[in-house]
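User: My collaborator sent over this chain with a note saying "see what the structure looks like." That's all I know about it. Can you take a look?
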Amino acid sequence: MTSPGPHRTRLVWSTEMLGYDFGDGHPMAPLRLDLTMRLVEDLGLTTLPGVELVGAAPAPDALLETAHAPGYVAAVRAASLHGKLDLVHGLGTSDDPVFPGMHEAAARVVTGSVEAALAVWQARADHAVNLTGGMHHAMVDHASGFCVYNDAVAAIRAVLEAGAERVAYVDVDAHHGDGVERAFWDDPRVLTISVHESGHTLFPGTGHPTDVGGPHARGRAVNVALPSGTTGTPWLRAVAAVVEPLVRSFRPELIVSQHGCDAHGSDPLTNLAVSVDAQRRAMGMVHDLAHEVSQGRWVALGGGGYAVVEVVPRAWAHLVGVATHHPVDPATPVPEAWLEHVATVLGAAGPVTMGDEDLVLPRLWSEGYDPGDLVDRIIMATRQATFHHHDLDALYD
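Assistant: Without extra context I'll predict from the sequence alone. Here is the result:
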């Protein structure tokens, strides 16, 4: 349900967000955010009626401690100030090297997601997007997988504290959303669904179909662990066959989704082959579910994605387009001004259109389960492990 007047989308962004910078050569390059926002602006999405760009100040310790142990927050602050490695807390590894201002940069991301979620929950915005967010690997007491503070956990806890009784978290990053799952493992108020590459071939090695939640929350943790090489059409079938029926059954009051775009075939760190077009379709699925079951309340976060020119800017520009109710046609030419900027800064040629291919839409699950298809067998394993907890039939619903 949309509000009267222009659709209101809160877009978290300021150049201060580029301070989350692990240094030269690290995959989590702030350039990917800079290029994304330049493309979003060149497509005219930031000047649409109802779009509000909002910056974020570093979160205070009390807010960070809704997701993290006080000792860990103190450790991040100390490492940030003094540059000392603290491997007990995961600070100073190759994934999470220490850098000056690390605490403030990571805490700023948390503020962005928490304030976005509260704005949606309190009907000050219809949808919200924080492309700098989605730091889904950060654990209660240590950094992990390029993630220092877990903004998604803090955002969900904020709306629960504000009165929400059911929140769904949908994660389509190529990596398992382990930090968010762990935080809500035994909390029946939160449904976490992660569609990712199998932990047998990709970090963090977790997220198996039989991982279904704690004793008070069976079926609230849901994992679709796809094989290396999965392409866009079967990937979309997995999203539709698991995410859609479970979210409809759970009927969350708000959906938080993480749209790491590292499932793309050009990503240097993963082994899936999901096109920008398929990822755009999944964004639309989540958006439509929010309008169907959550009164339109939707908070979309960024996450992984390391093909800095070819993939990340286009994928996340599509996310902004979907959230603003002005979806970008995949056939749209990439703006010339953006291509010229890429050529000037990187000496590289960028993609010429906003899509990769003509997308072949998957068969609906209701059209039949194919036991000879590996992805179908994986989907079925997830459905069999979780659907009965929601009074759903693994084969038919």
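A starting point for your reply to your collaborator: The CA atoms of residues 366 and 396 lie 6 Å apart.
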